[in-house]
Amino acid sequence: LDFLHCVEKVFPFDAKLEDDTVDVYNQFLLVCRENGDSISMKLFETIIDEEQAHFNYFDNVAGHIRTLGPA
Asked: Half-sphere exposure of 41 toward its Cβ, with a 13 Å CA cutoff?
């Protein structure tokens, strides 16, 4: 957990977590679709959109840190 104090590592770590989460939610969405559960499918679509926004944020910040350096 010491890496959590290193800004160069925190944002890529968080981006990976969000990306992995989107993958898992997409699998859940497919199960809902295969079973005709359109309500849950819509719910997962919304959640995936939110998680994708989180991923984009963390990935963008990580890119800025790589380019500009940590503070």
From this structure: 9
